[in-house]
Amino acid sequence: MMKKSSGTTKYFSLGLMALAIQGCGGDTNTSTNLDNVDISGPSTGWEMVWNDEFDGTSIDAAKWSHEVNCAGGGNQESQCYTDAPENSWVADGMLNIAALKADEGAEKPFTSARLTTKGKADFLYGRIEMRAKLPSGQGSWPAFWMLPTDNVYGIWPRSGEIDIVEAVNLKAKDAEGNPEAHVHGTLHYGREWPKNEQSGKAYLLPDNINPADDFHTYAIEWQQGEIRWYVDDYLYATQRRSEVRYNAKEQPVGLAYKGWFTEYYDQSTGELNLTWGDQPFDEKFHLMLNFAVGGNWPINVNETGIDETAFNSENKYIVDYVRVYECTANPDTGKGCETVRPGYDKLDDALVEGKAPAPTPPSDGVAKDLLIFDSTPNPSWPAWDCCGGSTPDLVADADKGDVYRFVVGESPTVNGFISRSAFITDPEGVPSPFDASPIESNGVLSFAMKLVSAPVAPDVAWLVKLESNEGATAVELPITDSTEGLAPSVGQWQTYSFPLSTLASKGLDLSAIDVVMLFPAWGSGNGAEYLMDEVKISRPNASLPSLTVFTDNENPDWPMWDCCGGSTPSVVSDDAEHGIVSEFTVGSSPTVMGYINRTEFGGSGAMFDATSILEKGLIQFELKVVNAPNTADAPWLFKVESNNGETAVEVALTASVEGNVPSAQWQTFSFSLADLSAAGLDVSAIDVLMIFPAWGQGEGAVYRVDNVKISQPGADAPSADRLTLFADQIADTWSIWDCCAGSTPTVVSDDSDHGAVAEYVIGEQPTVVGFFADDGVYYDASAAVPSGVVRFEMKVVSAPSDPSSKWLFKIESGDASTAVELNLSDSLEGVEPVVGQWQTYTFPLQTLADAGLDASAIDVLMVFPSWGTGNGAVFRLDNAIIGTP
C-alpha cells in the first residue's frame, strides 16, 4: 500500500533543499524574470495583418461602414448616428468624428457617427490598437470597442463585448472638483440583460495627463483565455477566463479563479447552460468606433446631464490610426507574444477579478429538509430587508412564540430570508444554499404569516419570490398561487404552501436555493407590517422508506427461501427477547438461503427502492448459529440481489460494520447501502437477501435469523453530516500527530466543560501538529461544502518563546494533492489565541474550497505556531469537527 504523504514534508526538507541548492552553484529559477522585461513597447512577434492609417481623402468604404440609426445604443443615448460628412471625415491623415447639435425638431437632439468593420474585417486573437485624441465635455462618450460577428452564444452580452477604451465626461469636474481624466477597459458577458455582467478597470495617465489634451495609444492584447489592456504600452488591466475546480470525483465544486463566463443555449438539449471556458471570447469580433452623446452612464456622473456647448466641430474624436496584429508564434491562440510586466497577473495590481458565479455544487442525491426559521433564528439564513433600511426583529406572538417582524416604509424593498455571505453576520453562520432537487416531487416551501397592518395603498398584491445560485434563476408568484389560495388578512395567522415541482416548472433551479422572500409588490408596500414563522422547505408528513423483511413472523411479500436444497425454512420460537424467528437448515445439497421478493417464489414482486437512504442506510439482521456446518472453517456469506439478478453483491459476514464472526449467540450484522452500491449493487430494486455458509460447505448447518430490515437508523432524529475528529477521544482511523519533531501528543484532562483533550508540546525541533488520518482513510465533506465548517476549540497553555510566532491552521486533502493554510485570525471569530483561555475557531468549508481545497478526501488537519518559531508552546485542542455544525 502506498504510504500516505503530507504536504508538511516540505517543512522537514526545507533546510536540506537550501543546502543542496547552495552547493550546486547554479541558478535553479526557471520562471520568467519580469523585472527584466522591456515594457517600452510591444513584445516582438507581432505581425500587422490589418490597418487603416486614414491617409486618404475619405473614409475607406472597403474597411468601414456607417451605422445609420437613432436607437441610442441601448443606453438611452441622445444622438442619431449618420453617415453625413459633417459627423465623420478624413483630413490630414486623421479620422475625425464630431457630435453636433441637431436641427430643431429632429428625432434626437444630437448627431454623431458610429463606424464598424462588420462584414469587412473581423478578428480572433491578436493585438488591436488605436492612436487617438479623445473629445471632452459633460455628456461625451467616445469609444473604441469590439462586438462578436456571429453571436454564436446568443444575444448581448452572451456572445461578449470587448471595450478597448472608453471615456466619459473628460475634463468635467468629479466629486472632488478635479477634471475627469479616466479611461476604461471593460468586458461584457454572462447572462441576458438584466442579469448581464461586466468587469473592467479605470486608468489615470501619469502626471495628471488628460486624454483629451493629446494623442495616446490604446490597445489590447487578446489571446486564448486572457485579454490585457494598455495605454501608451503600459499594461494596466488583465482579465482571464474562469478556472473551474473539481474534486476527486471530477465534480465541479468551485472556482480556482473567478473570471469571465457566459450563458448559452445547448442546441442539442434546448437547455440554458453556464460555461466557464474561453467562451464567449473565442469567436471572431469586429471593430467599432463611435462618439456617443449622453446615455445612462455619462449623464449620471461628474457634473451630470449634458453640456450642449461641448458638442461642436472643434471638440472632435480624432483617430490617427487603427492597427491589428497577429502573434506569429501561435496565430491560433494568440499566445507567445505577450507584452507583460511584474504585477500584470496580481489582483492588487493589474489583474481584474471577473463576475463568474461558482458552479452549482453537485447534488449528493440525498433527500433532506430545511428549517429556515421556527422561533429560533438560523444563523445561516438571517432575516433580511433588501433595500428599505429596516432590520427585521424578533417579537413575541401569543400564538406562535418568537416570530420575525418585517416592516415596509417609504423606500421600496423586499423582505425575507437569505443565505449569502454578504448578509450573514452571525459568526456561527455560513452560506448554505439548499439542494432541494432530491425532494422535487414531494417537497414544499411553506411558511406561516400574519399581517399586522396592511399597506397604505389599497389592493396591493403580495408576492413570494425564491432565488437560486446567487440569482442565476428566480421565480416570483402571487401569494394567492399557493396551495391554500388565500390573500393575507389583517390579524390572522395563515399558512402558505408552494410545491417545489411548481417552482421548478417555472424555471427555478432547485439545487442551490439561497433566498426566500415575501413582500408587497415593489414600491406599493408603505405601511405594511407582517410576521413570519415556520419557514421551511420540506416533505410534509414524509418519512424515509424502510422495509421489515422479518420480525416475529414471516412477511408474506418476502417469503423465506431455500434456493436449491429442497428444504422448507420454518418459523420457530426462540428466547424471550426474540420470540418467533426464521430457521434455516442446510442438507447435503449445496444451496443458498434467505428471503426473496420475486413472484415466482411467492413474493409480491414489489422491489424495494433504497435510493433515498443510500448515504446512511443499512441492511441489518440478527443471526444465531444452532449447529455449525460440518466443514468447521466454512465461510459465512451475505448476498443481496437487485432487479431479478441484474446486479448482485456477495460479502463475508465478517465484513459487516460490526465485524462479527457467527456464533451460538445472537449477534447483529449491518451492511452499508453505500458500500454495497459502491460494489455494484443497484439499490433501487432490491429483491433478494441471502445469509448462508459458502456454497457446498454448509451441510449440517442450522441457523436462525431475526429482525431483518432495510432502513436508515435514527431516520426520525436529526442527523449530522459531519466527522467528529476529537471530542474526549480521537476519531477511529485518525491519530493525534506530530509531523516532524518526534514527540507524542497526549490526551490529558482539562476543565469540567472539556474533559479529555489533545495536548501538543513544541520543542526546539521545527514541526507542525494536528490530526492525521490512517493510510487510505479520507473524509468526504464535499456534500457539506455549502453549509459545513471546520471547527475546533483551542487553549494555549504556554505561548511560544518567540514573540513573532504566528498561529496557523492548515488542512490537506488527497495525500496533500490540495491544501489550504490560513492564520487562525482568518477564522470567522477573527481572534488570536490568548494564554489560558479556550477559544473557538471556525473556517467555512466553502471558504476552504474556494481557496483550493478538494473537500472530497480530507486527511490532515493541523494547528501550529509558524514553522521554526514554536519552541516552548504547549496547547490543547478539543471538539474538532468537519461538516455540518
UniProtKB/TrEMBL annotation:
Q: Which family does it belong to?
A: Belongs to the glycosyl hydrolase 16 family.
- Organism of origin is Shewanella subflava
Residues annotated as domain GH16: 37-330
Q: What is this protein called?
A: Family 16 glycosylhydrolase
Please give the Pfam families that the UniProt record associates with this protein: Glyco_hydro_16
Q: Which domain of life is it from?
A: Bacteria
Tell me the PANTHER family matching this sequence. GLYCOSIDE HYDROLASE FAMILY 16 PROTEIN, GLYCOSYL HYDROLASE-RELATED
Q: Which residues cross the membrane?
A: none
